[in-house]
Amino acid sequence: MSASTPGVLSRASLILGVGVTALSFIALIAILVLYFSGLVPHAGLYWAALWGFPAGFVLMCLYIMLSLGRRRTP
Q: For the chain, which has fewer Cβ within 10 Å, the N-terminal or C-terminal residue?
């Protein structure tokens, strides 16, 4: 595998990171919509927004670290 093609682990971490972050953003938008419409959001939405953003960020940082490590090894 060449240095320009990502490995399976790095590709999976990127896809999962983007997906988790996107779901967290959707949960945040749902919380705001429900709040401004006068309804109480479900606790799962708060949980998804609270833990999803950092988890997605960590997964995307893992992708960066794996790709940097792969490019630095000869």
A: C
